[in-house]
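Minutes, project huddle
Topic: does the predicted pose make sense with AHG bound?
PN asked that the exact inputs be recorded in the minutes so nobody has to dig through chat later. Recorded below.
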Amino acid sequence: MTDSTRLNLADEIVLGRDFMTLSQHVLSQVGTFSPEAYDLSALMGRIGLAGKTIARHLSRAGLVENVLGVTGEVNVQGEAVKNMDRYANRVFLRAFEQSGLVCRLASEEMEKPYYIPENCPIGRYTLLYDPIDGSSNIDVNLAIGSIFSIRQQEGNDESGEALDLLQSGRKQIGAGYILYGTSTMFVYSLGKGVHAFTLDPSIGEFILSQENICVPERGSVYSVNEGNFWQWDEPMREYVRYIHRQAGNTARYSGALVADIHRILFQGGVFLYPGMVGHEDGKLRLLYESAPLAYLMEQAGGRATTGKQEILDVVPDRLHYRTPLIIGSSENVKVVESFLN
Ligand code: AHG
Ligand code: MN
Ligand code: MN
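Predicted holo structure (tokens), as shared on screen:
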């Protein structure tokens, strides 16, 4: 006689793994079956869907029209908009239309927040995002990412100015990124550790691959665009000269923040995008690049600073506000600080 409710141990383990999907994990993180928990689970599921849609589009680059190349437009940052930037921006908007979840989206590619008025009576979240991070990697088939940050919407925002977004990164209730690499990964935190999922394309689901990631206290990687060396202040140059003199350090810089920080999250080290002559605040934008990644790094036990202030304490004065960024293993960040102060 066989017991049809049982499998052998190996099959049970595989099944258990396959059923820890992203949406399921979010519910277990929130710890209740409240309406809010279901909203967050659905919200994360929609971000995951946006990620899967973008990954599918990327996998056909070079085979179909309008995946590679530029649109001919320039965005609010003064950067050439790539076809993928525009497509991915639109994917996120589409993922939340008629979702009832998100009232407002703000992105690197849009000068002002985008409202979905029909969602606003019930969906009190704002999603901030960088639809494609590392755009210069698109046309050469290298790793890129998407970054997101979730905030509770405060007040009625009748002016449409989104002034409630001009608060520190401590106001984030969740953050994460999707990495389009050799596999597609989804990494997120809701303030209870950092968790990574890998897309299993055969079932179209993000499956838990690592829970409670802890960034090593120190690491040998430094990740910075040294082509800007002569644009930095002297203390930053002195730090990099010091790194050059230490045996065992190794440089890794891909041109996509998500990919570089993913490496550091798992293996330790430090990523830097310092201020430069004429661009004292550097390049990276606080609300949808530095702050969500700082949130993840702190949750994993690491740190993120501008060199003067913790990234999560910085209060922006506009939506597309930029800050210098030094992020990674706590010991490595401390060494950078010892040069700056
Ligand atoms: P984006 O593609 O969203 O504009 O971001 C690119 C960012 C970041 O991902 C990367 O670390 C950095 O810009 C690269 O800039 P440099 O080419 O100046 O090094
Ligand atoms: Mn970016
Ligand atoms: Mn971008």
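Observations noted during the meeting:
- Residues 3-210 form a domain with the Fructose-1,6-Bisphosphatase; Chain A, domain 1 fold (CATH 3.30.540.10).
- The first helix runs from residue 9 to 18.
No decisions taken; revisit at the next huddle.
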